[in-house]
Amino acid sequence: MTITGAEILVRCLQDEQIEFIFGYPGGAALHIYDALYRQEAVKHILVRHEQGATHAADGYARSTGKPGVVLVTSGPGVTNTVTGIATAFMDSIPMVVITAQVPSTLIGDDAFQEVDTVGITRPCVKHNFLVKDVADLATTMKKAFYLATSGRPGPVVVDVPKDITNETAAYDYPKRVAMRSYQPRSKGHSKQIARGVDLLLRAKRPIIYTGGGAVLGDAQKPLRELVDLLGFPCTTTLMGLGAIAASNRYFLGMLGMHGTYESNMAMHDCDVMLAVGARFDDRVTGDLEKFSPGTRIVQIDIDPSSIGKNVAVEVPIVGDCGDVLGEMVKLAAPRLDEIERPAVERWWRQIDEWKSLDSLAYTHSDEVIKPQYVVQKMMEVTGGDAFVTSDVGQHQMWAAQYYGFEAPRRWINSGGLGTMGFGLPAAMGVQLAHPKEAVACITGDASIIMCIQELSTCKQYDLPIKVINLNNRYMGMVRQWQEFFYDRRYSHSYMDALPDFVALAESFGHAGMRVEKPAEVEDALKQAFAMKERLVFVDVVTDPAENVYPMIAAGKGHNEMHLKPGCAGEAEVERELA
Amino acid sequence: MRRIISVLLENEAGALSRVAGLFSARGYNIESLTVAPTDDDSLSRMTIVTFGTDQIIEQITKQLNKLIEVVKLSDLTEGHHIERELMLVKVGTTGSDQREEIKRLNDIFRGRIIDVTDSTYTLELTGNSQKVDAFLEALAPFEIIEVVRSGISGIGRGKRALKV
Questions:
Q1: Which of the four pLDDT bands, split at 50, 70 and 90, describes residue A185?
Q2: Residues of chain B numbered 92-151 and touching chain A (CB < 8 Å)
Q3: Is B159 an interface residue toward A (CB < 8 Å)?
Q4: Is B55's CB within 8 Å of A308's CB?
Q5: Which residues of chain B have pLDDT under 50?
Q6: Is A162 among the residues known to form the active site?
Q7: Structural contact between residues A408 and A243, judged by C-beta atoms closer than 8 angstroms
Q8: Measured distance CA(A117)–CA(A29) in Å, rounded
């Protein structure tokens, strides 16, 4: 028996046990939409803009570990997804994006709503396909899911011309596909792992530095075991938050441009570094010339090209972070007496000294709402186990700094590409995947506007997201850089005609709240999170002059941090630098 | 340092643009790139001549390996190898002295004359890049109408082979 290409596509999704597909219909996709209409297993979520579909699928994927799936039409449907695909690509998020294409007979004719999808998406996908024969469709879909979810995950685009979705073929979904040109390795090389452990045990000033790979590889269990076993300090990147519990006594907080003083100083002064699924991004390393001089580095990554890309590595280990860390725990456990305890204790005393500067301290005010205070209160109100999505800018950094993530996959943000507009649609995907859990989108007045149309989607599917808008009437991070580096010339960073967010949310059918006094923050958040059935838009009017500290300016080293003016440690740091 | 990287990749539409895109997106240098199907028609073989520091070359090979369609690759310059390039050059000739001189040069370089008119010779030369460059230099006094170079193809010496 043969079925149409459109039916094959939907059957593939069913066989992959896909719960949700995020999409937006259009001419070239209509056969597929018709096939979706005639079944119930795969639920289609109608977004209001294709960018929203990709971010929602992305949020779904980040919070579950399962691939997010998107369906869009040709032409503008595709171009609107590019930001979302690039976002997923930069953060290695498994995603399959099905794009409809004009009929094969019209490809290359500049047909209506035609765009070279494979060409446009090529630089920001793990792989992409143009399906030319309906008989190849099922195998191509299998390959797409296999590629998206294995090895270093990433987005895969499957471009399907309209005529292919109407032609028929027998349906046979392969159980697995083998590709001679793609054989990702998960087990690390045992000799290399042993060398890594040897180096770690001999360390006098060790640090464990983990990134998004530890979250993607579900490495939290062996990571926590290893950290507790060795008693070594651990820091994570923005993408790695939650892999180790924020409350773990060996956790130093986030590192990098807005990381804690102790994390960055420890990265600079360490003698042995274990990098786990982290790619030495420029926001993490600062100036590479000044990065961690003389340190011997062990790096675990599933992607060989991430190893030694920016920083020379002594012991490279290609493999799945979880697998390799598990092996390391086994090797290290019987050899703990080899650790140079007195040296490591001295190292901890030094770290505690750095920690005592309290680099995340801020001055509370009874007059204006400090954004940091809002995040702290939100953490209290949610018990610290909400799913938190964010957009990009100051609010993102404050969310990362002040919401202590105890578990992985709870902190959902665009770390690599830095996509404003990510937070709200991502929260939709998270909320759909976790209908009973608290899902908050910490955002800012500039970012939220970028995908505000998705409030309509939230209404249609009753998604009770809590939007916490840290409204400082500025593109805060742009303003901060202009204050620091452009002599306070605030070129186009002021949001001059902001909407009444409460009225806006209400017009979409949601609840809106405006908070203007510090004393009102806690109650407002309690009220908002108590409304379990509704989306609540909490517009918090925050201090427009607040900056994100500490900070490593671009081109500076880890030991050249700027602390908050007037904070206890500032004078000391200045002295050290002088 | 100059390197010659041989790549076996799936013989599929779009594979070439992925490789070219990788080099332009990451700012790697391409001196030449040749590609054609092999005896196994599911595979193409590509020869890329590039240059960069050891660290950049390592990244290039890793990034190439990461492309889904790349099956296998090898840096020929890591061992003994042979490289060859084909050049076709059309030279304008006036008078029998010039024609004799060009023929002599062609003999010295072991080229072949593949097309003749009363005012042109078209010459074919195969060799490594230096030989091809030297031949062009030798022809410089004459009127060079057109030059076509294939780019380098390379193969390992002895038993060393790049195959699936």
A1: confident
A2: none
A3: no
A4: yes
A5: none
A6: yes
A7: yes
A8: 14
* Half-sphere exposure in the Cβ direction for B91 (13 Å, CA): 28
Across the range A107-115, mean pLDDT stands at: 96
Long-range contacts of A139-142 (CB under 8 A, 24+ apart): A139/A174, A139/A177, A141/A8, A141/A9, A141/A12, A141/A13, A141/A16, A141/A96, A141/A173, A142/A12, A142/A173, A142/A174, A142/A176, A142/A177
Interface of A with B (CB under 8 A): 118-119, 122-123, 126-127, 130, 147, 179-182, 303-305, 308-309, 312
Token reading at A451: 């995908």
Does residue A392 carry a pLDDT above 60? yes
Question: CA A353, CA A338: separation in Å to the nearest integer?
Answer: 26
pLDDT in tens, A477-504: 999 999 999 999 999 998 889 999 999 9
Q: What residue of B is the nearest CA neighbor of A310?
A: B55
**pLDDT score of A186:** 84
Nearest to A364 by CA among A232, A254, A517: A517
Q: Number of helices and strands (H, E) in chain A? A: 24, 20
- Residue of A558 and A453 predicted with greater confidence: A453
Q: How far B139 CA lies from chain A's nearest CA (Å)?
A: 42
The angle at the Cα of A427, spanning A409 to A115, to the nearest 5 degrees, equals 105
CB pairs under 8 A between A and B: 36
Q: Which secondary structure element, helix H or strand E, spans residue B137, and what is its range?
A: helix B129-139
What is the complex's ipTM, to 2 decimals?
A: 0.92
A564 secondary structure, DSSP code: P
pLDDT above 60 for A571: no
Kindly report, residue by residue over A424-447, the tens digit of the pLDDT.
999 999 999 999 999 999 999 999
Q: Is B82 helix (H, G, I), strand (E, B) or coil?
A: strand
Give contacts of A303 with chain B, Cβ < 8 Å: 66
Rounded to whole angstroms, the Cα distance separating B75 from A237 reads 35
- Other CB atoms closer than 10 Å to residue B102's CB: what's the count? 21
Across all residues in chain A, what is the average pLDDT?
95
Residue linked to tokens 């050290």? A576
CA distance A259 to chain B (A): 28
The answer to whether the beta carbons of residues A304 and B65 sit under 8 Å apart is yes
Summarised one tens digit per residue, pLDDT across range A273-282 is 999 999 999 9
Helix, strand, coil % in chain B, rounded to nearest 5: 30, 40, 30
Mean pLDDT of A73-77: 98
SS3 B35: strand
Largest CA-CA distance found in chain A, in angstroms, rounded: 79
Within 10 angstroms of residue B98's Cβ, the number of other Cβ atoms is 16
Owner of token pair 């890594």: A196
Tokens of A489: 């010339």
Classify residue A95 by burial, with Cβ atoms within 10 Å: 0-12, 13-18, 19+. buried
pLDDT band at A578 (very low <50, low <70, confident <90, very high): very low
